[in-house]
Amino acid sequence: MHLLIPSNWDESLLSSLSQSRADITLYSALPTSMLGSGGTGPDIPQVTQEQAEEYIKLTHSSGLAFDYLINAPSMNNMEWDEDTHRDLIKHLDWLSNAGVDRVTVAIPYLAELIKRQFPHIKVEISTIAHVNSVARAELFESLGVDSIILHTNINRDFELLRAIRKAVKCELGVLTNSLCLYQCPYEYYHNNTLGHATQHYNPLNGFYMDYCVTRCTLERFRDVSQFIKSRWIRPEDVSPYEEIGINFFKIAGRAMSSEWITNATEAYASGQYPGNLYELLYVPNPKLECPRVGSPPKVYIDNQALEGFLDFFKKQDCASGCARCNYCQKTADKVLRLDRPEADGYTTTLKRFLNDLTTSKMFLAKKY
Predict the structure, then answer these.
(1) Contact (Cβ atoms closer than 8 angstroms) between residue 105 and residue 71
(2) DSSP labels for 30-78?
(3) β-pair partners for 6
(4) CA of 252: how far to CAs of 127, 227, 335, in Å?
(5) Per-residue buried b or exposed e for 249-280, using 16+ beta carbons within 10 Å of the residue's own CB
(6) DSSP secondary structure code for residue 103 in this structure
């Protein structure tokens, strides 16, 4: 099994991962750069280029590969500015000299540029690029990319996964543990806010208000079936994807502790995790960006009670049939536990925060 594992730049993480029974590639990014990435926040470790270079060397010494993220979905058209473009090439030169094995991108132009000017670096297409059809997979492969992480919305669409696998020769991967909403309406906006916040030429110097995480968190606690609809993959359910021909499995969570990363890696490498599946799932906590919002309620998802859960999706068309189906709600009723009064209190706090945003109370001394 090939696992793509998040790195928090902790050197002690390398020794534990090097002992894993799985084939490991680590991935991470600087907190800010001229290209940006798909994640930010105060829990993303602050490292310098020099520290990153040393870490990549240690990664290779531990027998592991390194994938560097430059997967912001937009550069705000700055890639066409002559000075910025020159800096772009310098940044890619730095990555080449640092010895990264692979880079993950979301912008098609960057994929083609890197394959043309840095052919020794493998290029991976991020799930942020929304490869969710045969046509998109074929078009990205035509740019010369080496691998594609398919969009999470199709994680349980087995007919489509098989069709994409049959259509392209490049490696395919899936994201295993995202708790993002299924068919999330905030996703495009959220990815753009994160991307711009991690680009050092952004005029707000990384500041952004995470409206999107607050919104989707509110939706999950309002409708607990969303915890089940999210396209996570249990460690026990990896085999059907391997049978299709999925080559690798990505675990989200580079803002998490080394203990958490090691635990998640072991779960997927061993193919089992007794207890609370929620402990393996990753979604940013809105309190990180919104100090007025307290800690979310504790959630328990009985992983052992989910045995056989995936079988339903092998024949179900969720994209067209979700509104007529209550499978996820029934599953939530069976496997999910949380304190309802505590959840209601939490959502009330989230609503107050969103009200301050949408009425502009947070920004203006007086209302219009």
Answers:
(1) yes
(2) -SSBSS--S--STTS----HHHHHHHHHHHHHTT-EEEEEE--S--TTG
(3) 27
(4) 11, 16, 23
(5) bbbbbbbbebebbbebbbbbbeeebeeebbbb
(6) E
The model's pLDDT over 89-134, given as tens digits with 9 standing for 90+, comes to: 999 999 999 999 999 999 999 999 999 999 999 999 999 999 999 9
> Which bin fits 91, alpha (ψ -120 to 50), beta or left (φ > 0)?
alpha
**Residue 246 to residues 2, 161, 213, 282, Cα–Cα distance (Å):** 10, 9, 29, 21
- 107: its two tokens: 């912008």
Whether the predicted model's global pTM rises above the 0.70 cut: yes
The token pair at 15 is: 């020794």
274 Cβ contact list (under 8 Å, min separation 6): 303, 304
- The pLDDT of residue 368: 41
CB 78 within 8 A of CB 35: no
- Is residue 205 classed as helix, strand or coil in its secondary structure? coil
